[in-house]
Amino acid sequence: MRRRLTSWCIPLLLGAASAAWGQALQPLPPIEPPKTEQVELGKYLFFEPRLSGDGGVSCDTCHDPATGWGDGKALSTGYPGSEYFRNAQTLLNAAYYKRNYWDGRMAGSDLPTLVRDHLTEAHFMQVDGRLLAERLKQVPEYVEMFQKAFSGEPTFGRTLTAVAAFLKTITSRNAPIDRHLRGDRSALSAEAQEGLALFQGKAGCAQCHTGALLSDQKFHALGVPENPDIFADPFRHTTFRRFFRTLGAPNAENYREDPGLYGVTKEKVDWGKFRTPSLREVSRTAPYMHNGSLATLEDVVAFYDRGGGQHRNKSPLLKPLGLTAGEKRALVEFLKSLAGDPVIVERPELPDYTPRKLGQN
Amino acid sequence: MQTTRWAALLLGGLFLGVGLWTSGALGEGQRDRAIGPLPPVPVPPDNPMSPGKVELGKLLFWDTRLSGDASTSCASCHDPTLGWGTGQALSRGYPGSEHWRNSQPVLNSAYYAKLFWAGEVTSLESQAAAAATGNVAGNGDPVMMEERLRQIPEYVNQFKQVFAVEQPTIELAWQAIAAFERTLVSKAENVPFDRYAKGDQPALSPEAKRGLALFQGKAGCIQCHNGPLLSDDSYHNLGVPENALFESSPLHQITLRYQHVVRGVPEKVYRSADRDLGLYYTTKREEDRGKFRTPSLRELKYTAPYMHNGVFASLEEVIEFYGRAGGTDPNKSPLLKPLRLSDQEKKDLLAFLLSLSSDQPLIIEPPNLPDYAPMK
To answer: From the list A237, A238, A358, which residue is nearest B274 (CB)?
Structure first.
């Protein structure tokens, strides 16, 4: 009886909280479905290592469906000869972001350019777009698929569009939270419902994790502990310095912490700020934070419970929460309800290069 | 015996006057530059030599970190034990690709005014940069490679000593590699022909001496292979047969089309691309289709296979090719004419060609490379 009352009250509380903190939690809106033929082609290209400079790295190398569409590592791998210095984010629901990457340096409205950045950047796949197009033209199956998807031959631009179309299909489906928000009172356990109340109340999570994506899409400094590997591992530090040099951030060789948004804006107030990630599917995407320094959801909840870390730009929204052990468990339980049915995509069997008739290009 | 001595004397005398009689005899109306020992290596004023720079350049020449995925160094395609090339018809490419041309020997490359098979660059410094960053060669990102060098304390010290800079830069790395390459030259005392040219008559066999005469006379080789480098540093179309790999190898076909794209040819040329167009990519002039820069003939004993696409496995094949006036091509050089060489003349020519190589190949052992270390 009491449980039932709680579940009735939640939506009301939710509305009140969101009035103060921004957009209410809501189910993910549908994305306008991309052209089926482009999605099908994009799926092949997603798993295609010939989209990388040395033919050894594909999108799924760091965004593996089997590890929550990330790589399950604290810091991502990067191109051979390099190591990356941030956590590979899940691609689940990536198409919903206004800004992409942890520092928001890419516009979410332009997914093909986000794909381009991954393909051509020296620390990711380091391919030349012109070479890539000629490789794809060497695969008759791809020539046919491009014809169906674009009424034309393989090009770099169409490649980006096709992968972006596929990305739009990697979205949460049937998450308990969405069933709950649509009125299914049995969708969340009692503990998860308690967690939801904490999320929007005492724990203050919804100050930043709001809206359908559970992200305000803004930038905050939390004082997340630095991952010392970025500076101790020469491969990562090399990538790190090159990255900030190419962004035009000054004096990058002396940085001993990840400056986050500062690298993009060069504003001191943005030092150490990162874009709020979505919490959807979060139970599948460990480890956590921009540098993977927190291994489990329990660690994350404990981190916020202490008011976050130490940082001169730390958000004033972070305060010690005084959560009980039971409340922490309830929060984690709620976070787990944000994961929908697993989005499994089988790796397709990739077609081989085939000799072409010389001189008929 | 008497005759041989006479012939030697005669040939020696002819050699000294080589510039006078060869071109006249061939009716080209211009003198070919005399062949002979190499002069001191030319050094550009903005990259003077120093022992420290050469030592640094040697390390960098072998350092695979000067490529995209840290897999490929200069030495990967310019292996001292393979005549400073790859020993293959077509050079290996960056992983995931195949190269489309024969890897040329680095030996004596300091004497060229134009590098790569179609003379695309004009200095060893720019050649190193182009090779390390080219997408089917080194595929390196300049800033990434530079940051890698900065992560290696020994390199930081060496750049400081050699160039008086606080941090390595990639441009200085190319300078150091070029300085090292300027030390990779044939030494006259090791090359029979050079010894002969300096007055050591027995340095050339009678066969080779007859070959020298053919080279400068009947066979007409010197029309293009002249000067101390035995290259006119100019471009000619010989009608070299195509390498059949391009008909069957997907990776070679990809690179062939890719080269047409990056070199900005008109779409019509791309659509029909079936061969390496050589100098045309640079000039876009129809008459330059299929022209390649004359390679040096020095050290060719160690640098098989031959031609821009490595299509000839042996020097005998090369001589046969020229004997029949080269191949067939609308742009073929008018300098190529049937030579009607006898079997003995072919052997003589071969003996002379072999005398242009050092007695032993110049081999340098790979150095031990310094490691990365965390930065303070």
So the answer is: A358
